[in-house]
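User: Can you fold this complex?
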Amino acid sequence: SQQGEEDPQALSIQEGENATMNCSYKTSINNLQWYRQNSGRGLVHLILIRSNEREKHSGRLRVTLDTSKKSSSLLITASRAADTASYFCATDSGGSNYKLTFGKGTLLTVNP
Amino acid sequence: DAGITQSPRHKVTETGTPVTLRCHQTENHRYMYWYRQDPGHGLRLIHYSYGVKDTDKGEVSDGYSVSRSKTEDFLLTLESATSSQTSVYFCAISEPGGRVYEQYFGPGTRLTVT
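Assistant: Here's the predicted assembly.
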């Protein structure tokens, strides 16, 4: 069963606008990661936020984590057409097996 | 693609035939994973390995087996392919303790079972 659930399922914006995607999860986590997948390609790791962190930045990406609400958000600022992709959150619940549980993803379309 | 290759990249097979997919890495990472990706389901873990000859089941392991006889190779076998196993299969690797917990993905194998 899916641990993370992204919202919305699909998002369409214009170039230059900001895009916000949300992820909710059910059980306690060790860390939460965001991945991007371009059409027909494998997933690419974007950013990891640990359970004791509340916010993290990487370039145009900003991730927040609220463990009390079991939710995370990914903000992409000043979006570009090249940001068009599916975005997935993945949770790691700890333990020694280092398994990730992925959500179903948000399809982001950035129109030029 | 972080030194991960998958073969074949595309395969069409008939129901009831065995199929083996190969994942090869050049990173010497200890952990390797097999996922399937289907519309509406995202990525689901099939099996994973935490070392040579050390494997365990994931969320959707029925109908699949794996083997890892060398660090660099992780094989996924569909013992008797069914149409429900039509999917895109991704291999991933990680090395907790290095780039902790991040997984690096291969390009995927598109499998069609007719």
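The mean pLDDT of chain B is 93. The longest strand of chain B covers residues 42-51.
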